[in-house]
Amino acid sequence: MPAAHGIFAAALPPLAGSLFSLLAITSLLLAFVMLGSRWLYEYLIAFAVQSWLIALLSAAVAFYGGYPELYGIAVLTALFRGLVLPYLLLRIVRRLKVDRELHERLAPSSSLVVGAMLVVFAFVVATHLGQALGLTGTVAVLALTVMLSMKLIGFLMLTVRSEVISQVLGILVLENGIFLGSQILVPGMPLLIELVILFDLLVVVACFGVLVRYLVVHAGTSSTLELRRLTG
What we know:
The protein is an all-alpha fold and 232 residues long. The chain is built from 9 helices and no strands.
């Protein structure tokens, strides 16, 4: 994979390195916006903006790395992740008439502290991996840090939030982290794989939409905590 190696292992032009860093770090900060908020509409806005930033990152990698197929992936990312998925989730939120997290297991302020600790852990792991692979001082270390951080924050959201929408967004943040990292580390990923991933995300949102209806009809709530009462 020599071409991909040139993207993340070689010294990038200052403008390219700054652009990649800005887009990656801003995407991570938007994950913290979701982690530190109780309002579902803020979750959706943050996720949509995050997806658009990742689309811009794909286009930047396509431009600087010479991967024309990534322009198509950037368009698909902006369309499906940045528009279609937020729209579908917005319809679910409006149908539920619930605009905030009601049964959180951990306060937003405490969640932010835990999230910061997870970022430090991700940075340590990424630094060690970078040293082992000879990538110290390259954008690869930042990409690994952001990818691991967003994955861990996604798992944290799944753990400390109980609203179905929060659970869905936790999964989507986790997947956004994987996708963001792959655009820098493995920019030659085939377009077909991305299409399959996008289709899977649509299936996930549709399945959670069915789950929401089931919870509302049988439990009168959209909290996943009620799943324990419904079992058996």
